[in-house]
């Protein structure tokens, strides 16, 4: 299967029966604005726990919420169970986690980012602008009134937070893992003392303060300090310095290091998160609302374009050749797939559901990982960067594993790269829908034999464990900068040799410990292969396994 395109598509293997989004089959004019401002989607992954990573909102309308609780972020709420099994990580159309009213009967929210309207129903706004929320029951897009202008319209719910809450603080990054905090703080251009506050991964009700540091032994690094909560509501890193709010704790350590590795300087910069969808009810969209601008690639089953939706928003557009898959089957899968949200998965925005099918997704600036490694900046990457990219992919696959989904075609050609070496998984589940005989035969020329586990290639037994096998092959692509697996061997030979027990030797320059992980992924018995959760942990800690996760601090 030739999918080495800039094609950010995610399809799921799993279940049927999702509720369809509202569909407006009105004229294309709904998606036209009076002017055509510059595209507003950021091309950089938002490492903060935006709504692509957030968990499902509570289902009780108007339930009381403590906005200074650790469990609330501007990007999502506590996790729930899905009808498919596993924890939900979606901002589906469920009642908002925020209460209907605050003090005085009026809900006041503040904008965390600038936003430029994409349709005539949207509100444009600037960071810091305040809103009264008129209707917050539909999850991703809320009806709001600007207090400054009096105008009403829809706003993306992950762009706002309750005024005067922790979530509205620039330094609060919400639900974010230790490794993602390190990636963000260690970005080029950041200085010593730059910081962020996030929810603790390990202690419920606690937070973590992450600070960029430097020393002669390790060079640039990140220190993490646990912020604990007192029974009376206060906060502390050390019991001798207690504060009644997180805001006061941060203010104190911005003025004095007081035992930390460095005093807090500036807040870690971030970028706008992706919105959930292009706009309210913009799911099945008219073909006329898309403009194809730059052809990025072509494969067996279609083309990939950079384009613009509604004259306002930069997107990637996959055009499928007629007959590639049944439109009804695709739409059914896409309805399910769009609910998968994680910051290491490329989000699906919208579809044109009549043939030729168009699939609209986030545009990723650096294209496919395969091309990036062979022809782009990836040619010059060293092992630590390559292992970190592998850890990001494992993070996304661990989410797919938790959600009981299967990718079926995991390889470097189906990973997309953004700025700052951000990696996102694309194309999962697509393989199951393809109706081409040269693909469905599994032995055909279009089938990716070299990446496929033997039980899947021979008997069609695709599971998350066959994805683990494919991940092991993807690791060889990373460390060899895009070399084709099993060099010098044709597909039929690979299948025969692997069945006899042959496994690729350790690539040149690859540490033996990483090759050992590859060989674990290639165990003949699928049940003996590791989980993606294990793989993620192994890779994230690959260079730091001997260091403590949290710093005690000097004199703390």
UniProtKB/TrEMBL annotation:
Transmembrane segments: none annotated. Residues 104-165 form the SH3 domain. The keyword Transferase applies. GO terms for cellular component: cytosol. InterPro entries: Kinase-like_dom_sf, Non-receptor_tyrosine_kinases, Prot_kinase_dom, Protein_kinase_ATP_BS, Ser-Thr/Tyr_kinase_cat_dom, SH2, SH2_dom_sf, SH3-like_dom_sf. Belongs to the protein kinase superfamily. Tyr protein kinase family. This is Tyrosine-protein kinase.
């Amino acid at each position: 299967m030739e999918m080495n395109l800039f094609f950010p598509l995610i399809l799921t293997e799993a279940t049927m029966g999702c509720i369809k989004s509202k569909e407006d089959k009105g004229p294309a004019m709904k998606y036209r604005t009076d002017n055509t401002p510059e595209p507003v989607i950021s091309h950089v992954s938002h490492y903060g726990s935006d709504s692509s990573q957030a968990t499902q909102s509570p289902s009780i309308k108007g339930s009381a919420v403590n906005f200074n609780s650790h469990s609330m972020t501007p990007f999502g709420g506590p996790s729930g169970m899905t009808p498919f099994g596993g924890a939900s990580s979606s901002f589906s159309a469920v009642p908002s986690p925020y209460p209907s009213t605050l003090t005085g009967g009026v809900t006041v929210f503040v904008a965390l980012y600038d936003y430029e309207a994409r349709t005539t129903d949207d509100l444009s706004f600037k960071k810091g602008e305040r809103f009264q929320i008129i209707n917050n029951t539909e999850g991703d897009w809320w009806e709001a009134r600007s207090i400054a202008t009096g105008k009403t319209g829809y706003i993306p719910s992950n762009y706002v937070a309750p005024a005067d809450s922790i979530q509205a603080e620039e330094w609060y990054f919400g639900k974010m893992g230790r490794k993602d905090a390190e990636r963000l703080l260690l970005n080029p251009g950041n200085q010593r003392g730059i910081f962020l506050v996030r929810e603790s991964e390990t202690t419920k009700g606690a937070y973590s303060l992450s600070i960029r540091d430097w020393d002669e032994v390790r060079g640039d690094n990140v220190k993490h300090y646990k912020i604990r909560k007192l029974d009376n509501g206060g906060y502390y890193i050390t019991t001798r310095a207690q504060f009644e709010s997180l805001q006061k704790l941060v203010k104190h350590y911005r003025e004095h290091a007081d035992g930390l590795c460095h005093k807090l300087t500036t807040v870690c910069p971030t970028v706008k998160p992706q919105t959930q969808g292009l706009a309210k009810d913009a799911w099945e969209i008219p073909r006329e609302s898309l403009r194809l601008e730059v052809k990025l690639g072509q494969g067996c089953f279609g083309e990939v374009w950079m384009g613009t939706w509604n004259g306002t928003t930069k997107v990637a557009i996959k055009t499928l050749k007629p007959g590639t898959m049944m439109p009804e089957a695709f739409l059914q899968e896409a309805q399910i797939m769009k609910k998968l949200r994680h910051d290491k998965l490329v989000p699906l925005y919208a579809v044109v559901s009549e043939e030729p099918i168009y699939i609209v997704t986030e545009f990723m600036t650096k294209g496919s990982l395969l091309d990036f490694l062979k022809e782009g900046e990836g040619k010059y990457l060293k092992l630590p960067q390559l292992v970190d990219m592998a850890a990001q992919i494992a993070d996304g696959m661990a989410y797919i594993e938790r959600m009981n989904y299967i990718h079926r075609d995991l390889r470097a050609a189906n990973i997309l790269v953004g700025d700052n070496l951000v990696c996102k998984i694309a194309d999962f589940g697509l393989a199951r829908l393809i109706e081409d005989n040269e693909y469905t035969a599994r032995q055909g020329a279009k089938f990716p034999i070299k990446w496929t586990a033997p039980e899947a290639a021979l008997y069609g037994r695709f599971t998350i464990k066959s994805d683990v096998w494919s991940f092991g092959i993807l690791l060889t692509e990373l460390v060899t900068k895009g070399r084709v697996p099993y060099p010098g061997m044709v597909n039929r030979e690979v299948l025969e040799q692997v069945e006899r027990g042959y496994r690729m030797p350790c690539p040149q320059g690859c540490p033996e410990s990483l090759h050992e992980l590859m060989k674990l992924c290639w165990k003949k018995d699928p049940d003996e292969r590791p989980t993606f959760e294990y793989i993620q942990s192994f890779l994230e800690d690959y260079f730091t396994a001997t260091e403590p996760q949290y710093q005690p601090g000097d004199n703390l």
